[in-house]
Design goal:
Elements: E1 7-12, E2 18-27, E3 30-35, E4 38-39, E5 45-46, E6 49-59, E7 62-70
Antiparallel strand pairs: 1-2, 2-3, 3-6, 4-5, 6-7
Length: 84
């Protein structure tokens, strides 16, 4: 599989809540999934956060991202971004 490229996306969680996200490839730790702050279906507000992507896998026309713990090289990437 070729290396991932930056892309904006919407993540839908198990509680059916969607959050804006971005796959970033320009940081010092490699590929990072950055998720904007969102509120769960139960009403809990969660801050934006990021995870280091360990391994992208292509399965047919879908891509699966294997993520590790939070990205920890300096400040977390912001959940607000400008298109490159």
């Amino acid at each position: 599989m070729t290396a991932p490229w930056p892309v904006d996306l919407v993540l839908r969680f198990a509680d059916d809540v969607a959050a804006d996200a971005r796959l970033r490839v320009d940081g010092p730790v490699g590929v990072v999934l950055v998720v904007a702050a969102y509120t769960t279906a139960a009403g809990t507000s969660l801050d934006g956060r990021s995870w280091t992507v360990r391994e992208p896998r292509r399965e047919g026309d879908e891509v699966e991202l294997i993520v590790a713990g939070p990205a920890r090289s300096g400040p977390e990437p912001t959940a607000r971004w400008k298109d490159a």
